[in-house]
Amino acid sequence: MTAYGLWIDGSWHTPEKGHYAVVNPATEEVVGEAPEATPAEVADAVTAARAARDGWSRTDPRERAAVLDRTAELIGEHEKELLPLLQAETGATTRVTTTLQLPAAVDRFRRYARGALEPDVVPLAPCPVKRTPLAPGGLLGAAAVRRPVGVVGCITSYNFPVVNLAGKVAPALAMGNAVVAKPAPQDPLCCLALGPILKEAGLPDGLFNVVTGSHPATGEALVSHPGVDMISFTGSTAVGRKIAEAAGRSMKRTLMELGGKGAAIVLEDADGKVLKSAIGAVGSVWSFHSGQICTAPTRVLVHRSSYEKVVTGLSHYARALTIGSPVDNSTIVGPLISAAQRDRVEAYIAGAREQGARIAVGGTRPGLDRGFYVAPTLITNVTPDMTVAREELFGPVVVALPFDDEDEAVRIANSTSYGLYDYVFSADAGRAWALAARLRCGNVGINTVQRHPETPFGGFKESGVGRDGGSFGLHAYSELQSVVWPA
Questions:
Q1: Cα separation of 170 and 326, whole Å?
Q2: pLDDT confidence of 487, banded at 50, 70, 90?
Q3: pLDDT per residue as tens digits for the range 78-126
Q4: Active-site residue identified among 36, 294, 441, 462
Q5: Could you say which architecture CATH assigns to the domain 2-258+463-486?
């Protein structure tokens, strides 16, 4: 069992207050020990980042691109040791780990290696101006130029730790920023392991630092530090509010990707093929990382004419899923990240039953000796005002609600405080497109739950502030500066 240090200024640092245990969600065994960072150690990381940022911001973009490209290569080369560690600390199934955890992180570093070479100057047309008391008249030229923000604090979620961190670090470094990362406390070990990989790739010391801790104090120290210029956060809306409040005191820039309560709207014109697609899409709440994903379509809103058919299809789907050890290739549904999260999801299920909902499938703990498992659960007889239909559970639970017309479907879909990702299933793509305009959310999938990697990603309402993804990720980690001169 390895005890990790803090990664600060290009080297390991023994934590002053020792370590805490990182637990395998499937076996409940200790995977390794992560460092408990003090506020002073967080400050050391910020100091290192501030010292390194100026030189990096002035490097040739081709040099930044080469470092990010080499990082992608090295992650691939270290796959044999990283994959088992990542699976052990996240509890992700083999299918998810080998296709959507580490490979996706590699893709993001490669994408932003190209991004470092994207133009950062937007030329503006010359503009004739009249003489004023301040300046003579004439023809003025101008450009809008993207400049690095400075030091970025990246606070990441536990569901996809390395992917999420790569999606922040890669565009931030591509734009010439320095980073202090604070991974989720449940599974920070692979994020710590990125430190030596980036150093080997040629990243100068101080530009990537990782501090960890089992309590909120570590993140709070990072957010409140005056040397941090921006906070990029992925996690719950409740924590996001606290970060926004603290960051606002010093006018830090923020990028906030928060919670979701995705609605999958199945219209009455959905034929057999579309219905099958909708059932598979909603079933991904159970089969894709046990529903621990903010974009999951956890509410299925079905036209009353198809409601029973969809509920029956989802019931068959859920019962066919294999629950078990993530390292078993036949397993589809693995554990939740912790005992606390399992208990939280179970409490929501119990609350739904108390409010009059029906547990059509699941609702009981699987008969496994160890691990933080929740069985795939389908809840029917749900009304839009029930807690289980309004709050994010972050587990393998789907609620089904009928509707009678589009207006009612839109009202239900928009009735929560969230607005991250909704879906429309219809035989008429044009109709689905028109309906998408009425949904108060940052993303809409039409007959698919797949994501396009270049789209701007983020949410409306309490699902976040700002957008990343593709070139929009480069915009997120930069400030616009206007430069004006006499033509």
A1: 29
A2: confident
A3: 999 999 999 999 999 999 999 999 999 999 999 999 999 999 999 999 9
A4: 294
A5: 3-Layer(aba) Sandwich (3.40)
Q: Would you state the pLDDT for residue 317?
A: 98
| Each residue's pLDDT tens digit, 27-54 | 999 999 999 999 999 999 999 999 999 9
Q: Chain-centre distance of CA 476, in angstroms?
A: 15
The 3-class SS string of the chain reads: CEECCEEECCEEECCCCCEEEEECCCCCCEEEEEECCCHHHHHHHHHHHHHHHHHHHCCCHHHHHHHHHHHHHHHHHCHHHHHHHHHHHHCCCHHHHHHHHHHHHHHHHHHHHHHCCCCCEEEEEEEEECCCCCCCCEEEEEEEEEEECCEEEEECCCCCHHHHHHHHHHHHHHCCCEEEEECCCCCCHHHHHHHHHHHHCCCCCCCEEECCCCCCHHHHHHHHCCCCCEEEEECCHHHHHHHHHHHHCCCCEEEEECCCCCEEEECCCCCHHHHHHHHHHHHHHHHCHHHCCCCCCCEEEEECCCHHHHHHHHHHHHHCCCECCCCCCCCCECCCCCHHHHHHHHHHHHHHHHCCCEEEECCCCCCCCCCCCCCCEEEECCCCCCHHHCCCCCCCEEEEEEECCHHHHHHHHCCCCCCCEEEEECCCHHHHHHHHCCCCCCEEEECCCCCCCCCCECCCHHHEECCECHHHHHHHCEEEEEEEEEC
Which is the catalytic residue, given 257, 346, 392, 462?
257
154 is catalytic: no
Q: Where does 263-458 sit in CATH, by number? A: 3.40.309.10
Instruction: State the burial class of residue 83 (Cβ atoms within 10 Å of its Cβ: 0-12, 13-18, 19+).
Output: middle
Instruction: Point out which residues pair with 139 in neighbouring strands.
Output: 128
- Does the annotation count 190 as an active-site position? no
Residue 340 exposure: Cα atoms within 13 Å on the Cβ side: 2
Q: Evaluate whether 2-258+463-486 and 263-458 have a shared fold.
A: no
For the chain, what is the mean pLDDT? 97
- The ranges assigned to domains in the chain are 2-258+463-486, 263-458
Region 141-164: what's the mean pLDDT?
Answer: 98
